[in-house]
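Predict the 3D structure for this chain.
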Amino acid sequence: MKWFNILLVLICVALIGCKSTVPTAPAVPASADPVAPYLGTITTGAHIATGVFLQFGVNDAAERTLLANQIYSAASGVYSLTDGKVPTPEQVAEAVASFHWTGNVGIYAQFSGTIAEIYSAYYPQIVGNPKYAIEVLSALAQGCEQAASAYSTVTQGPQ
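Done. Predicted structure below.
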């Protein structure tokens, strides 16, 4: 389990590093959307974190399917989280964690914390704008859904 924790931390560090050190990222004018250049990275990060969680964090196939279905539910919650406001990283973690109703609580808490860490890395670019928050949260939800689809019995997302 220790290697799993290390892997999740490395994913977060890599994503935060990509956000802050990518020299090829286009310069963003003050009036442009500050999160748009990073949406692909956010989706990929959520996809990798979810895939690692489901593939390596859960040994039982039935529990993996159950957790994948729960991730679909959490993605629905993330899509609707803004409600005209900009949620904090803690609120994102709580929202994701609230969709876990059975199984290994500790591993799911690590997963929700990892998703919140990805969100918190881009939180400063949101600058209090709900539109930007929706874009970031949608990218997170899409990444989670994409990875969970390999194990889930849910056939479509909430869009």
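The chain has a mean pLDDT of 79.
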